[in-house]
Amino acid sequence: MKYEFSDDLKQAQTLDQEDVLSDIRNHFYIQPNQIYMDGNSLGLASKDAEESLNKMMNVWKTEGINMWDEYFHYGQKLGDECAKLINAEKNEVLITGSTTSNVHQCVTTLYHPTKDRYKILVDDLNFPTDRYAVDSDVRLKGYTPEEAVKVVKSPDGKYIDEDAVIEAMTPDVALILLPTVLYRSAQILDMEKITKAAHERGIFIGWDLCHAIGAIKMDFQKVQPDFAIWCTYKYLSGGPGSIAGLYLNKKHFDKTPGLAGWWGNRDDTQFQLKHQFQHQQDVSGWQIGTPTMLSMAPLEGTLKLINSIGMDKIRTKSLKITAYLMYLIDTKLSKYGCTVGNPREDDKRGGHVCLEHPNGYQISLALKDRGVIPDFREPDVIRLAPIALYTSYQEVYKMVEILEDIMSSKSYEKYSDKRGLVV
């Protein structure tokens, strides 16, 4: 989409006045004298999340073990709400585990290597935890990662070449795991195109939605992947370390879960406590242990809020406000060597902007001392995420003004380039 922007504060104020989501900001705990641009790492706390957490506490206080009468299927209930964000069927989505444990669950369920088809195809830019899990899973099958993990190399260290991925789908590939949105460069991969190519070759394919869910629109009824996994603490603001999400296509419900646990047993025999596992014939059969209710509860509030707005409105604002930020980087910061390191096309860009500069780490520290919260990714990327639910255009404008002062004064030079624990 074409946008008409200007580099003055007055337009930022006008954009906020025209923003149909401006009132949603009041649902979140915005800290005074702080501009929060790290919602793609940890979303801000909302009053809706607080309310649903307090509700769960009260249920525990008053009901004790009787709370299970109402909350036994809580993971499925939240999964139903999450399914709306990706247009999947209700019984295909579950809130359970962590991103990494869900990778293990899906891979061990679908990866059954043979002499001729034994490789897992990955890229070299995805978040490392996915690769750690895949490497671990092939070892469990008696292979080394060097033998069984096929890596599609990025041509430039920033983007994945979709055609190269498809070309790598050789007859020895059994399964594929890829990111929908790259965490470093915000590139969106064409899930439909790549999934179709995989299925035409008889290959199972799964997607990591960690930087996609709640940020971009997805249609799993159309794409029909085999599985997907994601965290819920970024754009979904479920809270630090909140319970993750798992999608399993219903065509796989007859398969035995790779990692069995008692919470995945059939409802009608679970409390018979037999030693023979009988998994529930829907996505809930892929649960392992007892759900952690207090960690799941905040997500209920934020999912209700997000679904009351709808992904159409969220994505529309996200595209506009990230375009505005890119415009300001071009007009105000490019003369200092700052560049935009993410795709500019609306259909190729996720929910964050990548500001690149050789001194990016030091600049990020200078920003934090000025009340701006970004995050940094190697080697030179400052990730800035103006979240549609709670970031204003005036905050974006003010942040760029602060950046302009940091760059013109070179105040970032006083900061060490030695990396901290959380970069």
Automatic annotation (TrEMBL):
Cofactor(s) recorded for this entry are: pyridoxal 5'-phosphate
Task: Locate the residues binding pyridoxal 5'-phosphate.
Answer: T99, T100, F127, P128, T129, D130, D208, H211, Y233, W262, T290
Q: Which UniProt keywords apply?
A: Hydrolase, Pyridine nucleotide biosynthesis, Pyridoxal phosphate
Pfam families in the cross-refs: KYNU_C
Q: What class of enzyme is it?
A: hydrolase
What molecular function does GO assign, one term? pyridoxal phosphate binding
Task: Name positions with the PTM N6-(pyridoxal phosphate)lysine.
Answer: K234
Signal sequence region: none
Copy the pathway line from the protein's UniProt record.
Cofactor biosynthesis; NAD(+) biosynthesis; quinolinate from L-kynurenine: step 2/3; Amino-acid degradation; L-kynurenine degradation; L-alanine and anthranilate from L-kynurenine: step 1/1
Q: What is its EC number?
A: 3.7.1.3
Which BP terms in the Gene Ontology apply to this protein? anthranilate metabolic process; L-kynurenine catabolic process; L-tryptophan catabolic process to kynurenine; NAD+ biosynthetic process; quinolinate biosynthetic process
Give the matching InterPro entries. Answer: Kynureninase (IPR010111), PyrdxlP-dep_Trfase (IPR015424), PyrdxlP-dep_Trfase_major (IPR015421), PyrdxlP-dep_Trfase_small (IPR015422)
Reaction catalyzed = L-kynurenine + H2O = anthranilate + L-alanine + H(+); 3-hydroxy-L-kynurenine + H2O = 3-hydroxyanthranilate + L-alanine + H(+)
Q: Name one GO cellular component term.
A: cytoplasm
Listed SUPFAM superfamilies: PLP-dependent transferases (SSF53383)
**Assembly and interactions?**
Homodimer.
UniProt cross-references to HAMAP family, sorted A to Z? Kynureninase (MF_01970)
Which family is this protein grouped under?
Belongs to the kynureninase family.
User: What task does this protein carry out?
Assistant: Catalyzes the cleavage of L-kynurenine (L-Kyn) and L-3-hydroxykynurenine (L-3OHKyn) into anthranilic acid (AA) and 3-hydroxyanthranilic acid (3-OHAA), respectively.
Q: What is this protein called?
A: Kynureninase
Gene that this polypeptide is encoded by? kynU
